[in-house]
Amino acid sequence: AVSACDKAGAWAQALGLLRRMRTSHVLPDVVSYNAVISACRKGEQTDKCLRLMHEMQQRHIQPNMISYGAVIGACASTADAASIFHLLDDVATKTRFTCAQHHQPGAGVASTSADCQQP
Question: Is residue 23 over pLDDT 70?
Answer without folding.
Answer: yes
